[in-house]
Amino acid sequence: MSATTAAIPDDMQNVSGYMAEAMSPNEEPFREPLILGNPSMHDVSRKIIDIIEGKVTGKYLATLAVTATLAIWGIICTGYTIVTGIGVWGLNNPVAWGWDITDFVFWIGIGHAGTLISAILFLFRQKWRTAINRSAEAMTIFAVICALLMVLMHTGRPWFAYWLFPYPNQMLMWINFRSPLVWDVFAVNTYFTVSLLFWFTGLVPDFATARNMVKNSVAKKIYHFFSLGWTGSTRHWHIYELAYLIFAAISTPLVLSVHSVVSFDFATSVIPGWHTTIFPPYFVAGAIFSGFAMVMTLLIIAREILNLKDFITLKHLDNMSKIILATGMMVGYAYSMELFIAWYSKNTYEWATFYNRLTGDYAWAYWTMVSCNVISPQIFWFKKMRRTIPVMFIMSIFVNIGMWFERFTIIATSLHHDYLPSSWGYYSPTWVEISIFIGTFGIFLTLFLLFAKFVPMIAIAEIKGVMPNAQPHHHEESH
Amino acid sequence: MNNDKSFAILGNFTDVNVLFHAAEKVRDSGYHDFDIFTPYPVHGLDKAMGVKRTILPYISFFGGISGLASAVLLMWWTGADNYKLNIGGKPFFAVEFGMPVMFELTILLTALFTFVGMWGLCKLPRWYHELQHDEGFQRACDDQFVVAIFSTDKRFSADTTKKLLSDIGASDIRLVESGAI
Amino acid sequence: MPSSVPSRKNYFKSSEIFLNPNAIKNTNGGEFESLPMNDEKSLFDNGVSRRSFMAVLSGSMALVAASCRRPDHKLVPYVKSVEYQIPGIPNYYTTVFQHKNAAHGLLIRSSDGHPTKIDGNDLHPISKGKSSAFAQATLVNLYDPDRMNRAKINGGDSTVNNALSHIKGAVLSSIQDGKSVRILIDEHCSPTFSKLISEIEGKFPLIKFVVLPSVFADGSAEAMLKTTGYDGEILPNLSLANTIVSVDNDFLGTDKFAVYHTANFSQNRKPEAGKAVMNMLIAAESTLTLTGANADKRMLLSPAETDAFVLGILKEIIAAKGSALIGSDVESAVANVQTTPNSQFAAKELLKAGDKAIVMVGAHRSVAANAAAYAINTLLGSIGSGKIIDPNAAIPNSNCKYPAVKELREELKAGKIGAVIFANTNPEYTADRELNNLLKKTPNRFSWSLYKDETASIASVYIPTTHYIETWGDAIAPGGIVSIQQPIIAPVNPTSQSVQELCLNLAKLLDETFLPEITGYYDYLRANYKSNFPDKQSWEKTLSDGIIAGLPASVSVNLSHSSAGLAQALGMKEEMKFDGLIGCVSLSYSLGDGYYSNNSWLLELADPITKMTWDNVAVMNSATAVLSNVKQGDIIAVAGNHGSVEVPAYILPGMADGVVGLALGFGRTSSGNVANGVGDSAYKLFGANESIGYYPIKVEKTGKISVLAATQNHNTIDDDREIIKETTLAELAANTENSSGIIELPISLVDNYTYKGHRWAMTIDLSACTGCNACVIACQSENNIPNVGKKDTANGREMHWLRMDRYFSRTSEGEESVEVSFQPMFCQHCENAPCENVCPVAATTHSPEGLNEMTYNRCVGTKYCLNNCPYKVRRFNWFNYHKHDAEPSNLLYNPDVTMRMRGVMEKCTFCVQRINHAKFHAKDQGRSQVVDGEVVTACQQACPASAIYFGNINDKTSKVVESRKTVRGYRVLEELNVRPSVTYLEKVRNREAKSEMSVHHG
Q1: Which residues from chain C sit within 8 angstroms of residue A92, using beta carbons?
Q2: Could you give the CA distance from residue C677 to residue C679 in angstroms, rounded to a whole number?
Q3: Residue range C142-170, pLDDT digits in tens
Q4: Could you tell me which chains touch chain B, where touching means 3 or more CB pairs under 8 A?
Q5: Which residues of A touch B131 (CB under 8 A)?
Q6: Does the beta-carbon distance from B86 to C832 stay under 8 Å?
Q7: Would the CB atoms of C33 and A421 count as touching at under 8 Å?
Q8: pTM score of the predicted model
Q9: Which of C961, C908, C909 shows the shortest CA–CA distance to C933?
Q10: Nearest Cα to Cα of residue C374 among C126, C562, C575, C239
């Protein structure tokens, strides 16, 4: 959060300089406010704490029941797979990766928006992020949990998955650092850890607020514990803000690296359709694309159910729509460029693969992807569409579908027809795979609902920092 | 340095501009052992109070370096020294394939050092605070700013300090005694 | 897409693409998704009990008795270890497998007392150290838990003695009321058994043995009989032949002697730029057989044209050489025959080769055609001692089988038969419907057989018989070489007895004065060869050699013909008037006649042409399919005059219009859990005196659709990817570039590893390979490869480490010009292996000897290596496939190879266990290096075509290095710079024209 910058040491003055100015309270009049209804600071705290304290509504419980059921069903199917063998899935030779890795990449991609909002938008002094970064980060963490589950489950012997970590063992074996999968292990786990620390750091002051404001004594104790005894001391804020900035600074390259590394799984292989240098940027763009779509889906629901319309305003959704439009065109560019290079290279296998993508057994998947990811977002050129909730909601769903199919297309179509026609095959999932994927949605949504109920889902301190009259007027002169 | 039970003198503010000047005044009148509790970070307040720059960046930097080093050592020792394996005709150790892991470990340790360093420097977690039951003090996490001048400061004296606070526009000025609550 | 390079052929993975690639490309989904998984048969349906545990116990203990070749069958507990039995070190024993009347000398590996691998005996003239997939797979039946372990009387358990005395009673009573007894036996080539038969028949006039083959093919024997008076067939030696015209004679495929023929045929299929000489195979046929697939020139005939075709050739030959050698009245027989371009072409090529040419007509085809072939061969001079057709190479017991069976039929009709014993024959399954009904009417029916088969179910008494590996016996091969068949293990099922034993015992029961001095068939056998084995040493030598030194007994036959007889034979044409579809029934490539069908290795072995597993299919070309409006996978009812079968349709190019191919051997109903209900039995189509051949049929759709568990599916190479390379003899001869062997690509970012010591590599000669599948089963047997069942095979989960890829191509538009190419595909052991790089846990790494090694117990099962393998030769254990192994089938496995658990990857290891064995051996002898030829991989050992070379390429004198020094050498996908260790040698077709090779296809 940019209100921190006055505390930034001189060697960071360039940063603090523009941050300070960005945070200057004299809002340009034509800019619409970030928070509607011009509430007092107490109202802000109250409103958000009320979400925690307020009674559990039937609507909430019903939703939770559904998602929890899905989660449990998914976990049961996972158990069934572990007990019986991964053969209960539809995978075969040549298509040894199907829905499992598709889901993995899908979830990792979803996660990216959170870090992006909390880190990159922070560095780019986008004040509007303050309302949504908390939930976006939470979404990141839950998405990565689902991703980790999928990548764990896709192994033939999940009970040995810990062998992927370098530790001294009786086999005297070490892991193979040439393998992109090992890079994945490091990247995804780092990503998960850093996101978690970042998220928790942001939460501490709000836990303190909650500690002070909630009535329920048990809740008070819990929030007291997690607030680590935060008092709001300026001497602490001084350190805290710098830490926050450092987190933002390292998370930015991290988030870009994670999906690049994921794309290496494919880009460093020899399989036509996988062996492509465009993958890292293409995957990152896609990740942001899908991530923002998912944030949009969740926030549209949240602002309805939890009545946060004052905090999550149309302006936020508008901005996100713009980002979706931009990244959507980036992936569109990537699609066309892949195709062009395949044709231009005159490489038999490469071209055969892409021709097969367009016209082969999985053409339906390819065209679903294109229409969802490239064609439909164009609607966001119109401001009206960027401000019509139903349109944005449907679009966000479309984009999520499209991005799932993008991963499926890359994985399944490249594998099912590769070099030797004698080994070609066709893959279709079984009910088990489908159930497990649905299960991950259950887990994701369940965690998100619990988060929304028990954790301040809007960064109270950050909101206050960007409210009108939150900062001293003569701040500029003071420099 | 008096040795009665008084712990600190508190005064609340509601206007951030008043607070800002108050901070400067307290600093200028020679107090060192005081603090201002705010619900959100106020720009320049730390400067106004004369807070020294933190050493956190150096801790983080050290974390990053150690992450990079551990990555390189890990990959070189396991691959090229401890157990050599010809895998796909690739070298036993090379920067090319080492790059991702080096990067990730650098980030990871930077993050961990920053996190631990931050709380260490804040001397947190600390689940008890002498002022934590003071009504006015608790609003520092809601919508007010609390200036606290601690009795440990050598210039501290109940009257003069109270006077100073009232001069600079604090409301609800009170003395909190340690253990009083 | 890029238009294909003109000078290249296009290869088709299978028919549908071949017919209309675009149609296939545009289909959504693909066959598996769109079809319901009905009639799926998983291996694991069978709840095999822990039956016959004792049998196994005794079996494994009996190794002492059996393996040390002691005649007595007492079980000796393993108290003291036997001197030559070192635990863990296998012993090798010879025996002989009688595939009908074809003797295949075998060398069997016995690991700790139980046979674990079947290979050919290199001293035996027929197998020459090679072995067919079928012969190797019979090992599965040895340990088959579905074999009965009790004799049965009217369904109830009994003992063999009771059962026999029960039979004796029935036999005696029927003899008393003047009715005779018939013992129906299968074809065999055992001199001693023949002797026993004649002795029994001499002793008991009313008891008669009748050979009841599962399929009849009397054409050639009858032609011989008519023309020369010799009732039988001659085994041609194709190694002497430069030109072979095969007329509906699948000598490389379903022939009993296929291994022998393949070896001789392929031996002349390895031309080099230097010496561009090879034999030429011209195949005229109406279904696409393995022989046709390997032909240089394939002629598609409708069945009705066959006689005319052969007679046409004869006419041409007579025109060229005159008829002096065969008599003038033959001329009149061919006078009014129309020659065709095909027959002219064949005649031209035959004449070119002179006495190095032969015409072979299918034994099941007409007497006229076979006689014509005889006449042609006579005119060409290819008959005679030392020639291709050598009178000494008479095939034992190859006489006409129909007459005896016809007689039996009459006797049965007349009700003269009081009792019939089915000895390893299964007429209820194989015989035509009429014979079945007649047999069912005989008052007493007894069954001695390996399984409680269909016939056993109509018999009142059943006695289990032994597997040939458990049996004493002997066999004579063409050329008179006699081998002793020795048991390698005591009967796994101790109550079972060999048919010979049972005959002997029955005879003794009927009359104790019968051979009083003989106690068992073993004594009888020894007695029969007393003169040959004066002492124990000579006997043991014979057993270890596998052939009896001193024999052959001369089996030379007189082939001087009577011109009149020849002329008469030439008149005996087939009556072939078809107005509708023609059903062509032939033996199955994997299952043969179905006797050993309860065998998962064979059932999951892909048919070399259709690549079908676990099912019988009605094969037809697209025109026929369109005509009868069926699509790939439709289950159709094929109705003949005597019965009908329901099988899925399979559309295959290269079939004659209107011909629907069906294979025998499927549709067992009472053979065992594995085979029961797999496919449908084409035997049901046969009427009286009908067997393999052509019959009028009707085809109707049933509306049902089947999952085709084919290991290759509908794809095509319609771009210029060079996976299969093919050239013509003309091109090869023209090739002047010097062959310094494989050129390593210099491109590499990093220095390549240097391999000191051994560096293993393999070469596959595609020109010699005929696609016979022997290597696939050899690999499966050596490496304990599990079977996965129909459902998983349909989903592409078959586990074969070595798969036989089949590609279609064509020399001109129109599918009749289809050509087939085979390519054994398995781990290429790339130096820069893509699979190794991606394994996160380093479970697959490269050995210092160039092997791509898989460490099973380190594998986590990410399957990333499989994805990144350009050849897709890695195999993943989707389930625990060995979970359902029942006693005693677990004895089947090779103890030198790890069993893989579920969730781990596996693949070809270049038989690393054999490599290590050889290295230990070398070490024992104080050598650091293995001598060339010391390591023989399982596939290489089995390959009848000797198309596989394996060895150490650091040893510059090794055969494998030699084999790589050729212009034909190339490596699949070497442009990826993965540096495979396997070199393929281009397939060469014996052709002049180059132009006809080019095909454009989008």
Answers
A1: 795-797
A2: 6
A3: 999 988 888 999 888 888 889 999 999 99
A4: A, C
A5: 231
A6: no
A7: no
A8: 0.88
A9: C961
A10: C562
